[in-house]
Every structure is written in C-alpha cells, then in structure tokens.
Amino acid sequence: xxxxxxxxxSGTALPFKVADLTLAEAGRHxxxxxxxxxxxxxxLRAEFGESKPLAGARIAGSLHMTVQTAVLIETLVALxxxxxxxxxxxxxxxxxxxxxxxVGPHGSVDAPAGVPVFAWKGETLEDYWWCTQQIFDWxxxxxxxxxxxxxxxxxxxxxGDATLLVHSGRDFExxxxxxxxxxxxxxxxxxxxxxxxxxxxxxxDRWTRIAAGIIGVTEETTTGVHRLYELARDxxxxxxxxNVNDSVTKSKFDNKYGIxxxxxxxxxxxxxxxxxxxxxxxxxxxxVGKGAAEALRGQGARVIVSEIDPINALQAAMDGFQxxxxxxxxxxxxxxxxxTGNLNVITTEHLLRMKHLAIVANVGHFDNExxxxxxxxxxxxxxxxxxxxxxxxxxxxxxxxxxxxEGRLMxxxxxxxxxxxxxxxxxxxxxxxxxxLYCYPEKYPVGVYVLPKHLDEKVARLHLDALGVELTELTPxxxxxxxVSVDGxxxxxxxxx
Amino acid sequence: xxxxxxxxxSGTALPFKVADLTLAEAGRHxxxxxxxxxxxxxxLRAEFGESKPLAGARIAGSLHMTVQTAVLIETLVALxxxxxxxxxxxxxxxxxxxxxxxVGPHGSVDAPAGVPVFAWKGETLEDYWWCTQQIFDWxxxxxxxxxxxxxxxxxxxxxGDATLLVHSGRDFExxxxxxxxxxxxxxxxxxxxxxxxxxxxxxxDRWTRIAAGIIGVTEETTTGVHRLYELARDxxxxxxxxNVNDSVTKSKFDNKYGIxxxxxxxxxxxxxxxxxxxxxxxxxxxxVGKGAAEALRGQGARVIVSEIDPINALQAAMDGFQxxxxxxxxxxxxxxxxxTGNLNVITTEHLLRMKHLAIVANVGHFDNExxxxxxxxxxxxxxxxxxxxxxxxxxxxxxxxxxxxEGRLMxxxxxxxxxxxxxxxxxxxxxxxxxxLYCYPEKYPVGVYVLPKHLDEKVARLHLDALGVELTELTPxxxxxxxVSVDGxxxxxxxxx
Amino acid sequence: xxxxxxxxxSGTALPFKVADLTLAEAGRHxxxxxxxxxxxxxxLRAEFGESKPLAGARIAGSLHMTVQTAVLIETLVALxxxxxxxxxxxxxxxxxxxxxxxVGPHGSVDAPAGVPVFAWKGETLEDYWWCTQQIFDWxxxxxxxxxxxxxxxxxxxxxGDATLLVHSGRDFExxxxxxxxxxxxxxxxxxxxxxxxxxxxxxxDRWTRIAAGIIGVTEETTTGVHRLYELARDxxxxxxxxNVNDSVTKSKFDNKYGIxxxxxxxxxxxxxxxxxxxxxxxxxxxxVGKGAAEALRGQGARVIVSEIDPINALQAAMDGFQxxxxxxxxxxxxxxxxxTGNLNVITTEHLLRMKHLAIVANVGHFDNExxxxxxxxxxxxxxxxxxxxxxxxxxxxxxxxxxxxEGRLMxxxxxxxxxxxxxxxxxxxxxxxxxxLYCYPEKYPVGVYVLPKHLDEKVARLHLDALGVELTELTPxxxxxxxVSVDGxxxxxxxxx
Amino acid sequence: xxxxxxxxxSGTALPFKVADLTLAEAGRHxxxxxxxxxxxxxxLRAEFGESKPLAGARIAGSLHMTVQTAVLIETLVALxxxxxxxxxxxxxxxxxxxxxxxVGPHGSVDAPAGVPVFAWKGETLEDYWWCTQQIFDWxxxxxxxxxxxxxxxxxxxxxGDATLLVHSGRDFExxxxxxxxxxxxxxxxxxxxxxxxxxxxxxxDRWTRIAAGIIGVTEETTTGVHRLYELARDxxxxxxxxNVNDSVTKSKFDNKYGIxxxxxxxxxxxxxxxxxxxxxxxxxxxxVGKGAAEALRGQGARVIVSEIDPINALQAAMDGFQxxxxxxxxxxxxxxxxxTGNLNVITTEHLLRMKHLAIVANVGHFDNExxxxxxxxxxxxxxxxxxxxxxxxxxxxxxxxxxxxEGRLMxxxxxxxxxxxxxxxxxxxxxxxxxxLYCYPEKYPVGVYVLPKHLDEKVARLHLDALGVELTELTPxxxxxxxVSVDGxxxxxxxxx
Lengths: 497, 497, 497, 497
Known about the structure:
By secondary structure, the first copy, chain A, is of the alpha/beta class.
C-alpha cells in the first residue's frame, strides 16, 4: 500500500504502522499521567491482573487511538488478552500514544515490544480501511503460536466500522461478488467496496471464517449501537453484542461530561475566539447537547438550542435556554455546534446566511451533520487552510465561515477528545463487557444486550475515591424499606438518572 | 365525627366539607390565573370538550387539593367525568381552592354547584381517612341518577392511599375481620384499622363491591407506584394501574423542576433565612435532589449531597457538589433537606449534633425521612411553634433546630406546592391515563403500565407554545435516516433524557 | 387624625401606633431567630454594650419596619441611644415586628415598654407622612427628662424622606409660607405640602429648631444618597451625611445578594408562577439587576436585560444574557422586573403590547419605574384585586397584566424584604456610621462621606464566622510585599470588588 | 550579541529580529481573523484613519508580541504613528505574529515592509533586555527622515519594563555611573545593570535625552501601575502616565473574563485532565480569582477559595464557594490556581502535602506566587519535562506534582493568553490613552491618571454591536431625572460596576 506520509513501518517481528516511533517516550509520559486519571481501569488491573480472565481472548479493537485508549489496551493485555488495534477516525489518533503502544512499556524504539497498532493522525480513507483490515489479520500471531490460521474472537468497536467490515465482507463472500459502485455512493463507501473487492480477489472465505470465530462485539457509540439494533431486528446480526453506550456510566458520563470538557477545548485550540458574550447555537439537546450547552453557558455564552423531540425541547426551555429553529436565528449566531446524530442539520443555505467568520463545528459521530458535501460542491466557494483542521470557506456572498475538522468530530480533531477520567468510565464498561462475553458466553445468545445494572454501579463505584466522594451506606432496615439489597442494584431498570 | 375546626359542611344537595366557602371567590381568581399556566390541561379541554371521552366515568380522586388540582378536576369534568375529591396530605389543601371547587364556576356560596370535595388544611389523621372514605361513597350520585347503588369506576391517586383503602378494605371483608392493633403499628395505621373496623361493622362487602367496579387507577408518585409494583408482583393487584410517575414529563419535570421552584419557596416562606452563603445538605440526588441542589446553588448556597447509589453519587460529584455522609459534615450544615424516599435519613443523633437553629426540612413523600417519632419521644426536647408549620425544637443540648411542616412535605406545607406549569405536565399525563383506562380497557389487563411514548411526547408538545419554544421538524429524509416517523416517537424506550 | 384601620393606639405612657399589639409574641419569636442571622449587629452589642457609645443620642429612624429593623433598633438601644421609628414605605411594615418593638423585650401587651414606633402595613400617604412627623416629635421624651423641648440629634434614613422633611420644613419656615399646589405636583407631594402647611400653622420654627439640633444623617439607599449629593452640590445640605449605601458591604451585598433572595421570593408569594422556562426582562444591570438576573437564571428562566450604560450592557452580554431594548422583545416576555432607579422604564405603551397575564414588578426604590400614573389614567383599564398587593389590570386590548405591589418595591410588598443576614451587613454599617457621627463629629464637617475602608472590612469580618469562612492571614513578608498592614485595609480606594 | 536561536535578522532597510519570517503568512491569517474579533480597534481605524491623530507620534511599545498585539500595532500605524516593538515577557511572543508584523500587510518575506519588531518565543534575559533597548533606538528612522537624532515620544507599556529602563538609565547617567552588582541582586537585575553599563560606556546622555523627549506613557498592568504610583509618590516620575489598567473595560474585563476563558484553556492544553468533579483551590478572589472560580464551576469542578480580604472572602461565600485556608484543605485538592498578586502563596511545605500528581498553576503576573525558588532548592526533588511548559516534580515524599509554565503565567505559557475580543477592550483603552497624551498634553501634567469615564464608556460602546447588544437610550426626561447627559457618562466615579 502506497502511503504519502513517512510512517514508521515495523521492521521487526512486531507488525504495526504509526507516524513516528520516537514519540513513544512522550506518549509513555502521558500514559503514566492518564493512569492516575483512570481509576476504573487501574482497579480492574488490580482485581483481575492475577486471574487473567481474558487469557485466550484475541481482541480486534477499532477505537480512537488516544492516550486513554492506550491505557485501555494495556488493561486488556494485563487481563490476559492479545490485542490488535486501529483508530476509528482518520483524525483522532494521537501519534505519541500510538508510538508508545507499539513500543510497549518494556520495549524500546529500536526493539518495539508492544501491541500491533495501525493508526496515525491524518489518514486518508484508503489508509483508514487498510488499517481496519489489519486488526483482523492475525497471521503473525498464528505464526508465533504455530497455528495454521487464527482470527480474532472478540471485537471492541466504536462506531461499528469493524463490525460492518465483517458483516459486509461475509455478505459479499456469500454472494460471490462485491457490488459495483452506484451513482449515489459516498466516496467512503466506494473505498470500502474497493477494499472488499481486493479481499475477495485473494480469498473467497476470509470474512466468513473471521465472522465464525467471533464470540461477540462490544460497542460504545449511539451510532454503532443503532446499527446493531437494526442488524438484530433484521435477523442479520452474526454474533452477540453488548451495547456499552447505554450503560449509565457511559451515555450519561462520556456523552455529557465528556463534551462539556472537550467542546470548549476544541473551540479554543482551533480558534482562540472568546466564547463569553457570543451567541452559540447548539443543535440537539440529548446528552451531548446538554453537555455542550452547560459548558458554553459556563463560559458566558448565550446558548440557543434546537430540538426535534418535544420532551428534550421542553427540557432545554426549563433549563433556561432559548429553543429555536436554525432558520429563525442563523444570522445572529457566532458559533454553531451540531450534536444530533442526524444529517444535514446545517445546510449550505444556512451557511450562506451566516455572519462573517461564523464558526461551524460538529460533535456528532459523522461529518454529515453539516452538509460538507454540499459545501464542497458550492460554486464560488473557496477553502483556505488557516491551520490544520481549521479552514476558512470564502463563500460567494463575500462572507466566510470557519469550519473545524472538516465537519468531523472537532473535539477529537481540534482537541484531544474526552479526558481520561471520563474515558475511564466508558472503558471500564468496555472491559467488563469483554469479560462478560468471553467468560459467560452462555448468558448471551445472538442479540444486543446492555450490561446488568450491578456492573454499571460497579463502574461508578470504582471512580468515587479518586474524587473524594463518600458514599452513604444503607442500613439493613433502610434497604428492606425500599426493597433492595444493601449492595445494590438500587434502581428499577427504567430509572432515568 | 368530631371536628375541632369550624368547617363549612354542606347544607345543600351537594355533599362536601371544606374550611370556609367564602374563600371561593379568591380561589376562583387563582384558578383563572392558573389556567393560563396550565396549557396542557386547557388543550385537552379544547381537544376533548366536545367528544367527552370521560362521559360515564366516576372518578375517586385523592390528590393534594390545591389550585392546580382544581384545574385538573374541572378538566376531568369538562371531559365528561363525575368526580369526588379528597386531599392526599393533611396539610396540603389550599382552602380557597377547595372552596372554589365546591362552589363551582357557575355556583355561588349560597348555592354551591361544584364538585363534592372533602379537604381542608390541617386535618387530623381521623379527618383524613374520613375524607378519603367519602370519595368512595357515591350515595348522593346514585340517588340523583335513580340507581340503587353505584361506586366509582376509576381512581386517580397520589401516594396510593385511595388504592390502599380499597385493597385493605376488601382483604378484611374477605377475612371477615379487621386485625387488632399490634404493638409496632403506627398511629396512622391504627386510624386506618379503626376506620375499616367501623366500615365492616356496617357492611360486609362495601369495599369488595367497590373494588369490583374499578376499571383502573392512575398513580403519580414514586411511592405509590412502588406499592403498585409490589401488589402486582405478589399477585394482589385488583385492577390495572397506569404509572404516571414514570412518564418523562412527570418524573423529570415535576420531581426536578417542581422542587427547584418550591423548595426555596418553602424555605423562604417558613424562615426568611438567606440561602446565599449557607451550607445546605441535600440527602438524595435523584430527580428531587437534583432539582433541590440546582435551586440552592442558584441562590448562592454551598451544597453538600449524600447518596447511597454510586451512579447518582458520581453524577453529583461531576455536577460540582461535595458528596459526603451526613455524619462527616453535620456540624457545619445550616439547612438539611431530605428527598430520598427512604426512612430515618436524619436521626435524633444527627439532630443533637446540629448547629443552633439549623433548619430541617423534608421534600420526600413521607415524614419518616426525618425521625420525627424519635424526636417526639426525646427526653428533654421541647417544641415551640414559631408560626404554623414552623417549629423550634429546643434540644437537651441547649441548642435548637427548626423543623418545617412537622417533617412532612415542606414545599406543600410551607409553600403552595409545585407551580401550575409543572403540574400541568403531570396532570395532563393523569388525564391521558384516565382516558386510556376508560376508553381502551382492552389494552390494559391487570398490571402496571407506563403511558406510551407518543403520549408522553404529546404532553410535552402541548406545553411548548406557552414558553415560546420553536420545535424543529425533521425532514422526511432525516426521519428516515434515524429510522423514526416525522411525528415521533423519537426515542427508544430505554432512552434516559 | 382619622384612620380607617383599627390600630393599637398607645393608651399608655409610651407613644406609638401599630396595627395589632397582640402580634408582639409572634414578632418576638421572629426577632429571636433573626438575631441568629445578624451576627454583625450582635457583635456590636457584645463590643459596645458596656461602653454605650450612643448614650445621649436621640435617633429619628425612617426605615422599613421589619423584623430585621427590629434587631437594628434594639442594637441602637443596647448601645445607649433613644430611638423613635417610622417605616419608609407604606407597604413594608411587618405588623408583628412593629408590635414587638412597641412592646419591647421586657414589656407586655398590657404594659408596652419598647420603642415609640409609628408604622403599619398598608398606610395611606396621609398616614405615612403623619408617621414620619412623629419621629421628630420628642415631646414625651422631653417630658420624661424634664426638658423644655428636645428634638432628635441624629437621623437614620432610608430613601431620604426624613431628611427631606427637615430640609423642606425649614425652607418653608424661612420663606414664611408653604407653596400652593401646582398643576404637575404628584399626589404624594401635595400630601407633604399639606402636612407642612399644617405644621407651619402651628409653629413658625419647628423644623428650623429640629434642623439645628441634628448632628448628622446616615442614609442607605442609592436614591437617598443621590438627593444628598445634590443638596451638597447646591450648598443646601444642613448637616453632615454618611453615605452608607456605598460601603461595599452594603451596595455589593444588600443590593445584589438581597435582591437575589427576595425577588424570586416576592414573585412566588405573589403569583406562584413557575419561573423556570419563562422569559424574564430585567431592566437595569447595576447591582440590583445583577442579583435579579442571577436569581432568575438560577431558577431556569431565560433572562433578557436592558441597559443604558454601555459598560454595564457589555457586562450583561459577557455574563451570557441577551441585551435588548424593551420595544424589541416586549411581546415575548412573561415577567418584567425594573430596577433602574429611573422613571417610566415601563410605559403604558409597553403594557398594552404585553402578553396576556404578563407579570410586572418593580424592585427599584420608587414606584415610577412603571408608569403607574399613566396606567391609572388609561381609559378602559380596569383593576381587579387578586389578593393584597396583586392586581390584575384588564386592558382595553382584552389582555390583562398582573401588577405587583402597585408598582412599589415588590420584594417588600409581596415578600418580607431582604433577609436578616444581608440586612445585618447593611445595618452594621448604619450603626458604625451613627457612632462615627455621634462620637467623632470633628471628622465630619457638613458634606457627604463614605465610611472608611477599615470599617467596611470590619463589617465583612463580623459576618465570616457564621458562614464557616476561614480567612487567610497575610504573613508580615506578604503584607510588606504588597504594601499594606497585616490587618488591612487591603485595597486602594478605587478598587471595585 | 550571541544568540543560540536561528533568528531572521533583518537583511533589509527594515531593522527587526524575529524567529522565522516564513511564519508571516500563518500570522497574517490569524491577524485577519483577530481583526474580526477586535471591533474596538477596527472602529478606531474607521474613526481616525483619515485624520491620523497620531501623525508624528513615535511609540516605543513593550507588550506581549501576540496576534492581538499585532492588531494593536497596525491600528497605531493606521492612526499615523511610527512604532517600534518588543515583547514584555520572554515566553509570550507568538512567532507567527511577530513575523507578520515584520513583513507587514503589504510587504513580503523577501521584502519586509512592516514594523521594527524585536521579539521571539523563548528569549534569554540578555535577549530580552537587548530587545527592550531596540525600541528606544530610532537611528534608522532618524536616517530616513534626515534628522540628526530622534527618540520616541510615547511609551506603551505592560508591566513597566520600558518605563523602568528610561528612568534607571537617566538616573545612572546623572550619577555618572551604574552601581556594581550587589549580593542580593536577582539575575535579571544584574542583566539590566550590565546593559546600562554598556550603554553608559557609549553615551553619557542617551537615556537623559530619551526621557526628555517622552510626552508620556500608558500602562496596562496592576504591577506596572503600582510602580508608577510609587514613582509619582516619591516625586521621581519623569513624564505623565495614564493608568489604563483601572479603566473598567480593562480591569473588570481583561482580568475577569479573560481569565475565565484562558485558565481552563491553559489547563486543558497542558494536562488534558478532566476538570469536572475535581476539587480546585483558587487563591485570591479579586477579578482574576472571580473569573477563575466561575470558569471552573462552569466545568463542574468544586472550587475552594482562599482570601485575605474579609470583603472578598464574604463575596466568595455569598457566591457559594467554600472559603478556607490552604493548610486546611491541601490534601484534598486536585488543582491549585494562584492569582493573588502576592508571593509565596504556595510554599514547599504545601507542595509536599499535596496529592500525587496535583496540578499547580499560576495566573498572577509574577512567578513567585508559587515558591519556585524553594522548589528548585528542595533536596531530593527531581524535575521531569512531560512536554514544554509542563513539568512533573518528583518530591522526596514519593509523590509528584505537575507544575505548569514553571510557575509563570500559565494562560500565556500553556495557552495563547486572553482572546482577541477581551484584548480589544484593553487595547482600545491603550490607543485612546495614547491619543489623549499626544493630542491633549496640556490636560496631563506629570502624574498618574485614569482615562475619563466617557472614554471608558466609549470603549464598551465600540464592542456592543459585535455581540448583538441593543443599548437602550435614555429619554431627555429620564436623563434629567437622574441628572446625567443622554450621552453619558452615566455613573459617579466611585461606582463599582
């Protein structure tokens, strides 16, 4: 595969591809600091480091290759797993983290001894899908173990791309052919088809064999979970899935408190524009929008929210925000944030009506919340790079807009994503879910599951000491009065927190 | 029945018992203003006032007899129902509202023509259970319609007392006897037993007949719902129940935004003490605790939260609150608020360690969150009334504490409860639930149900215009992309808002 | 003097006039509780109760006759002063506090032994100016001391009415006549002229003699201070004045934190309307407006601010508020609050454009912030009393507005004013200012002064323990580094806090 | 002069010294974006670009050479001034801004045609004072104009270094000698003495002549202003000074809203640590501390404040913060922020008691708020660079602390300082102050002045449109009522905002 970047290809027994191995020391410093902020993962190492419940597990991981993910990867390894890793976004890799993971805690730049990782900041789409394929290629591990062939037996997914690849690859193998490109196909879909076409040319059952070996997948995004429920509904899901996204300690923490942190961080690093006093439009008042609105108000912005769900709209109003359609206010807004999970929330018509140098940024999973395709096709629009991931688009109106991270997740593209403590919650759920699938497969026939509430509570419990939280304990009398065990779980399943 | 108050017993065809009929005009003014703040109920009157879906319904209502409840009652009547009403708390009746409901919009003090209502502020427990019995006695209505006997066919409940009475009454009738008082029985339970003993002396099947006639009950409190689920689990539930409490537009609105309003209101009316700068302890960080903590911070207090659930505890910490056990901080706290749904959250040991003139108040449903029984039994403690519902307890330590509303719901006892707009959400759910049970009984076999999500969204939708909220509409393309109808419902059932 | 109210005229040696002496016990309870919340005043009693620096002082007090003022009055007495008191607003008296002050801590209803107080809730303007005159009539005290004639030697003022009366009375005596009513005179001004005309008919030098005996005045409102600076500028000021309003611990505490507490309190008691989700317009972003906006946001309102000063307007924007002219938003607003110190901020034109049942309330000193005179003259407008101090005005448009406290200070008229802790700050400044004038007259030639910074800091210091504040102490090295004494004062005079 | 960096010395007629001229294009992009955020400066260009009130002014500027300062410099040029520039901090230069200023809007890298600028990120102290001298050397300008000798006639200062150099240089010339180094002299003071010794060796009256030519200085920091008041008090001030720091639109905006933005920005860029849920200690509750506390609470931290001034301490308590001495809470705190203006606020004793990996950061002007000297001398302490401006100090206790920017201003060292909009307020004051001194010298005899209030209001006014603020206008009647002009100024001088 041709690659314009100068990457540190593995010249050793360890296969990997990262931007620059010499960043490993800097990455290791940050990993060490992050461990201090990830008490949940460190507690799992303490609890399970001896018993190694994941011994024998072979995990194909597709998740932003950041410093926090490095702590996750090394936790999985500490629990006995073998791991291969790719990022799930072309911009989100932190190259020093990837380097440190390749080198490993006991290796060196000259003798990397870490985990096979395939990720760098600024991949092309072709790079991206090449990397994603690498996490399924366990040739080296097979060789090392003397096996004829082995594949992964677990997927750890973020956004569902790894799961998609397995399902689509198998489908095309069963069909005997990859479909030709169709008129409406996105560029990315064409890249996927090309990759699978190349795969099919080499092997007629590669993905079929891989799919057969997978015990299950754990998935942590709204988007990826949505895909899983659709597969299950349509009877196409090939293996059990644990929906980590809907653990309370994930969706109500990562989505809300993570964005509260990383949204202003991304805005600041990208633009250095004062948030105070500005009018900011937040599309969507789900957990992401709630975190965004709180953060922006906390910086002195005036926040206007848009919503399509009357319940969330009413919540926004009760929280003191103006709730309006974008068309009613677009000319007054200084900064636009999308976090809806939907497409074309900001259209080219909206872009053309905005103030000069309005900032447009997305914190939803996909870049189609802003009609970037429409913008790229807009006659007379000109794109000027102010700095990486910050572009001024000069519009035919004579005004410009500033688009961050080309419409992709700006908190990852312009900042460093969600901070370690938040990710420790999400990733502790991931690890517990991997253990559930691997150790108790009988509990999980093919289908989509959430983690049982006592594990969700356990994740929270592991993060209290670090914040100095004193938990009150029920007396037996009190526990009996409300009909729960002293040790929990404490709430009915439909409780909303 | 002996009654120390001078009540306006009905001297007319209309049976009722309220404190003072001449308050009706003042009550009517407030009802008129409240209607402007209850757009959900008024919209139901507009939608269903003609078709009268509740024609034939006979509703026994047990719910705080406030101005807002008056609008609910008159909405039920506008939809065709016959109604009898009692309050569900001895202190929560607003006497002018009760008077206005008895007089009715078209009656007069001399010729009351409203709804049979049995409620006044400051009932004894004996009064209270007498009143509750009245809502099941439809003798007058039977007489008016020429029927031999009729009973209610629906219960609208808050806390479950009306439902309890029917179930217990029938149980004792089936057993042929009411149990004797036992050593550990509370005073209130003895009052109930006495009432049912008197009933059984008069009729051996009164409650059995009533129970047989009930189509269902709608219940709006956490506490009442908890009882219903227990009855259903034990196979003892006699008729279907709709759990209105767990509509999002109830639990996430009434519990949170209602308390946010009424807690500081109650504190202010009771004590006039500056909240700003004070240390306030909030026991429980559920929806009630979240609303309380937000309100108190908004007034400049420093809030310390206690929790037994690690997830809620972590939420409190992430929202910036200190989380501590009461024992660790009791000496520093100026104001204590309980809203846990549990008992003995504040014990006499805690009371004895508090600062001089610390304020102790409860916003949970029952008065046992504070150990009032223990306080009353405490040797050397003296109770001084500062004003109604505000008592200084001089403790043997030489210090005093101020207890509001004798440990009962202080937002009702010291203020006027949740404001109209919030109650409009809750009560619109109640009316929709009554319609569901009455018009579509086939959908509801015996069991406990929540309202379907589209009705929950409808409740929210009916409240948007009044707040000037502009709701964004999905395009068909967007709706298809996320797999929902343009008109909703928009979320999966486990979505937490 | 004819008085429609049934007042408890003194039938004893103690002259006073209050609504109902039997309220004294209730008032005493509240005074006792308030003392716990007024650590500054109690500390002054401890510091100066022995030395009695105000022995010989005869204080004419004109200040809202509330529970807090009762603690102030009894502090002045404890420091040796003789006191006579009237309220400075026709609605602001708390009748139980007035009764308790008349009865005194050691008197009884049958044998009142407190302070001569002339105040009741709901005075007419004629009553009001009669009461104000009584604080200057020391006939009874003269008789008791065997003196021929004595007058007060200090004024403690709020709003400047007592000071105005002395200056105007003396002016007219020097002129030999009170002017005739002129066409544009307000009703209140005519009442004042009538009172002074009656005085002049009795004595040609009453006010001249009183003025000559006054050592000085302490004044605590923006409005009253403004009058004093004008008098001083025009050379008409008759005695020195201490501007207590501009102590930091007054203007930045009472005005801001007091309103933050009492504004929502007044709204709640008057209307029970949910503040959350509502659009509230706050006219003026001075200290009062800042406190109002913070409180309303803390309750979940969306606040729109208006300002005439570009600096304050920019502050409002930087604090995240929309800043708009009333004309631009009047139709969207649910609640209007004025706190500008200016007149006609809300005109009849604005009133006619408001939403149905919009709430209109003033927290500025005078009732002309809202054009109440214009409203009263408006053809077709009808006034309906919902309850005392809450009026629905039906307008010719068919819509209504709710006006609180007839446009006067709603936090006093609809609630109980600022809470004790805030007032303790203001009143500790008042007492220190009275001591300054009385004990150190040589420091204060005729003119207007603020208290020296070390006294301002002392006021703050006396309030820290009650809030559990630990103050950090400068090391000598640190004090030298920033060029201050270890004990303060710590800031340059122009420091803005 | 020896210089380890590879700097772009001017090889052209334009004298300058910057890090890398090829950064000019990137700098120009950012300047262009900053202009959109600096409406005050752009409005001055519009108002005065024609009349050029600064024609003939020769300004020696010493102020952080950032993108925002670039807009300031080009505004001064647009108003007719000639300018030479140095940075006032060895770390604060943004090299791309310096390059763009050297190149100028119409020049190119090959033919720089901008302003003589002498600044780069990471100067040594020797570099720094060499640069500062260059802004007083107008040889090139003299040559261009054919003059024999010219010097600057205005100083624009930040921190007072430029003013110090002129005063000290002249003193030593008058004394005929520069003092020898003394035992207690800091390294920096020795560098200054060496520079002036070299100057005196070349010319006996260089600084005397420069001082004589200076019309005045404008100064914008608390620290620099403090020095000026001391010089004036001691009769040593050589020319008039305008204290820009105490304009409301500077101290209440830059200090408060600037920190609110740049403090979390600096924390995030330095550490990526989640702020939410953490315990943060903020030393000092002046404008800087208020901005810090608000920002941190807005991110979900629990903030503990320390104060030495009882008034500010009481404000902190009333704003809902715990107020404690550092000794009482040091073990619980995750992040320490100093912003007091004092020294040794955090001592080595405190550092040794902190949690492992506690973060220590300063936003006060000097690095001695944290006892960095003591830390460097601490036996057994080891310093590890995590990344530039982020150091882990391993302490003899076995725990580490993270120190940001070596104890210097972390918002400049770890982030990019205050954002453009805030700086536009500060710098508009600077430009107006330069105009005042240059155009109206008769108004300013030697002394220290603040800008008149109408100019302060003008600065605010110029920033309203950009935020969509609608300012309300007084009617003539209203203006008369409060005794001001319709156009302002609106407040008395001691008003605190």
